[in-house]
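User: Design a sequence. Structure:
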């Protein structure tokens, strides 16, 4: 008995939660962004369905005006139906083609359209009844309302109230028995329940989809970042460059490739923990100097870093590379009989045509880095020759 009581209590609680949209309120409290996404999704659904139905009712209003009951009341309802359908379709087209979609305004347009449409249906149905015809138009209205059940609790009560207006009038005027009114009430209650259930389903599905989208976006961001330094990794840099090339508006790019001199020897000499600390300090030097010039900074390998500079000439890229080299040298991180230094390869600026531009410039920067390495390290390679500062410190590597 207790088990049955708990089961019934659970079912009743679930029904109350569905009808009162408690699930949505909980979602709004837990995740306002998910709730906002749900509201926009529901508005788009309602507007889309109403727009399709408005196009159909436009034709229906014209047919009613031409072939319907010949009375002033029917003609007024038909003309109102035609005008409201035309206006709604125009407002939908104007809002959808706008740069910024005003969802609240579209929601207002939709509600006003349904209210006008309801009034037109009642006028035509009353006219049909007064002329001895069966009110088929009202049956069409019931089908239309049930095809758009995604409304809030208060809106569903408004529609349900309208559903009762004409049946009550028809039942009284035609002296219908009690079962007719019971049937009308059952249709009204069923609409409220269907509207609540469908909206609840939309809420659960859409909020779940939104959170999944956010999780996937977060995972994508994490997969594109280097866990130690927080910089972009190879995948992240490639994706950012793809976005850059698709966006357009960038005239040229340059690539700066930075490599820590003799870092493998530093690793063997001091161990992994010290190597990680050294790598992190070099990374901070690069970020501090390069941040004002570019956001496209990547840890490209174990001890390699890549910068992509937009609309920067080769000479300007070399000047930035020299600042980077000097900042690491000034850090004076001890390394054997010398200090930690970096060698840098700089590619010349080239027009940004496609993703292949990035690969070509990266290969060129790598060739220039080899020139810098072969020239004693702690210098810059550019256009086939090394740029060596006269006060260059010796790169570490020997004990």
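Assistant: Done.
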């Amino acid at each position: 008995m207790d088990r049955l009581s708990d089961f019934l209590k659970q079912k009743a609680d679930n029904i109350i939660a569905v009808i009162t949209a408690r699930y949505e309120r909980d979602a709004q409290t837990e995740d306002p962004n998910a709730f906002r996404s749900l509201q926009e999704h529901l508005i788009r659904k309602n507007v889309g369905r109403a727009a399709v139905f408005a196009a159909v009712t436009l034709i229906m209003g014209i047919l009613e005006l031409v072939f319907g009951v010949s009375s002033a009341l029917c003609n007024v309802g038909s003309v109102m139906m035609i005008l409201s359908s035309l206006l709604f379709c125009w407002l939908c087209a104007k809002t959808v083609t706008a740069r910024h979609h005003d969802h609240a305004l579209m929601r207002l347009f939709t509600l006003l359209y349904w209210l006008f449409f309801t009034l037109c249906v009642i006028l035509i149905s009353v006219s049909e009844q007064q002329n001895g015809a069966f009110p088929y138009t009202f049956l069409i209205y019931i089908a239309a309302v049930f095809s758009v059940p995604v409304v809030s609790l208060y809106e569903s009560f408004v529609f349900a109230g309208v559903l009762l207006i004409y049946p009550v009038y028809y039942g009284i005027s035609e002296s219908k028995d009690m079962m007719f009114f019971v049937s009308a009430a059952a249709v009204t209650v069923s609409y409220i329940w269907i509207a609540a259930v469908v909206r609840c389903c939309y809420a659960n599905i859409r909020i779940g989809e939104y959170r999944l989208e956010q999780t996937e976006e977060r995972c994508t961001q994490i997969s594109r970042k280097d866990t130690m330094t927080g910089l972009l990794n190879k995948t992240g840099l490639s994706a950012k460059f793809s976005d850059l090339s698709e966006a357009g508006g960038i005239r040229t790019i340059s690539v700066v490739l930075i490599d820590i001199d003799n870092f493998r020897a530093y690793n063997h000499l001091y161990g992994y923990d010290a190597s990680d600390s050294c790598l992190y300090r070099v990374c901070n030097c690069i970020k501090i100097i390069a941040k004002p010039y570019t956001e496209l900074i990547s840890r490209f390998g174990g001890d390699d870093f890549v910068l992509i500079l937009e609309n920067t000439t080769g000479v300007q890229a070399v000047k930035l590379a020299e600042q980077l080299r000097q900042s690491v040298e000034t850090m004076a991180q001890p390394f054997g009989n010398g200090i930690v230094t970096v060698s840098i390869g700089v590619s010349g600026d080239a027009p940004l045509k496609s993703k292949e531009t990035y690969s070509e410039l990266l290969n060129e920067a790598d060739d220039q880095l080899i020139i810098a390495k072969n020239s004693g390290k702690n210098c810059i390679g550019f256009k086939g020759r090394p740029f060596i500062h006269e006060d260059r410190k010796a790169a570490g590597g020997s004990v």
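The mean pLDDT is 80. Strands lie at 252-260, 297-299, 304-310, 334-335, 338-339, 342-346, 350-351, 380-382, 385-387.
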